[in-house]
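Sample pair:
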Amino acid sequence: MLDTKTILASRTVWANLIGLVALVLDLFGFDVSEIGTGAFEEAAIQFIAAASFIASTVFRILATKQILN
């Protein structure tokens, strides 16, 4: 792993950011009443967060370049 890339070019970083945003929206009680009943949307936000953190782990395993410090 001798090649490098910027932090914004990292799929791992983007997957973690998406998961973090989903968790923060859920934590602060993001109002989803306009899109539906609430229970489904709550589950969807949690699924997005979980899937993004799983994806970030997979992306890190498959990574071939280091992130620049």
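The longest strand covers residues 4-5.
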